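#dry-run=false #mode=assembly
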Amino acid sequence: MSAAGTGLDFTLPQQLTVIALCALTAFVSHLALAVFNDGVRPFLLDFVRGRSTRGATAAVSFGLSAGFVFGLGAPMALASGVLNPWLLFLPTDVLGILAPRKWLAPLLGAAWGAVVVFGLKGANRLAHELPVDFLTALQEMSTPILYLFTLFPVLAVTKQFGRVRGGVVGVVELALVVLTLKLWPTVFAGAVAMAVGVLMLIGFAVARDVGQRRAAAPVSDTAGTGSGDDADPMASLFGASAARLRRHLPLFMVLGAGICVLAQLKIFGGGEATSFLVAKGQYAEAAQVDLYRMLGFLPLIATTALASGAYGIVGFTLAYPVGYLLPNPYLAALAGAAVFAVEVLALSWIGKGLGRLPSVRDSSEHLRAAIGEALGLAILFGSLMAANAMGGGLGILVCGGLYLLNEAMGRPVVRMAAAPAAVLVGGVVLNVLYWLDLFTPVKA
Amino acid sequence: MAQILTGGVGKIEVAEAVERLGLDGVDVTVSSDLDAATRLRTGTADYYLGACHTGAGASLGLLVGLLGQGACHTFGRGTPTADEVDALLVDGKKAFGFALDRIEAVAPVVARAIAGRGA
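#status=ok
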């Protein structure tokens, strides 16, 4: 049955895992050792140094996170039927920092985990029993997501290295997609193309950095002393942060084990696209997509961690793809702990490397922007396809209309989540119309 | 001439949004957070505008660490008024972060306020 793909029937061990992990993430956030929100991390520096109060830091955290919980995490979870980090870990960021006592933080975190697990399960069951099943319709989303996501390296190369190289990567990727479809019909068509596209982007960036360093070498004397003065405060800040995180290595290993187990349970998608892939059971594709996504986020998470002394709750997000691919939770726990240990120990070295490779750092920003643009179109188009599957022209009118309304109102819901959220609301509207005898569900 | 640097995920779009205003007394250059933090500290640039998904991570993260929270302000996903930005500039804020999907709304307000102070 199609419902099996999206139906979130959490088993008891799954529920307990989510609740325990939320308790742990809230505790880690309380200690200001890690937060999920990349924007909150920098503000933890002043808190740790005692220049900012717990209340003020909690307020910053809430201000930067609330929109993403209600505008991205919740609609994504309802739409895909799969848990996501925005829904689970942004609230535990806030609750952990907010909690005035150490013992209260895990309790609040666990309570949030329970709310999510039981609330989402109830909402999902209810939705599947309705005459207009909008959750099954939302599975339409996965084709546009997978195929448009394939193109993100082309967009990133075009933005960073111009039209000519962007065009070359575009042609290469298209050829590889056609070739894959013809030669290996069982493999996801974009798999090879995406890998080659990402490698070309990294290649261009490294080549530019190496070339520039070679060009700058003759004047390295003056440049050396100049940047030496400026690099000093940065080096000492980065060094102190890395040392702080290393001191808590065992706790981070437990956290890594938890994150990896969560991904292994197949009830969690780490990225915007992955939720829909995990919902459809396409784990290998999900792992590939999140691995590339990691390349976009690694420099950001490393830089903010080194500048603040607080790490990412999910590390560099490498634990996600590892978890999707592993056969059982025990292996996932071991692997997750190992991944986090390596990440935390390598942080200092990664920071130095990124300092020497500004184009690579730049690439990651273009990569994230490109992922956002490709997914933005894919999710919008997929949502309209879902609206069409659900209610034909009327569905498109209601869902497209709600999306446009959000735009006109200045985007209270994050753009990425606006279309799936519109499908949810549209689905409820169509069900009400059906109940009033004003609408007949479209038969697939 | 106030030198504005842009950084973060939407740095090109931010610079374009400011350039489009054609303001006198403001010069905008696409930069990066790392470069901007150094140049603001050494005084070879005056202001920094950064955009990213949250409005504070990729855009401001490094600057909060290196310049201190006192010099930085995030609008998050909100949109400030001209008066609010003026007050922040008087307060000594130099680096501003905002959300990617708010660039069109926020960047012009901040750039105009900076240009207004120069005049």
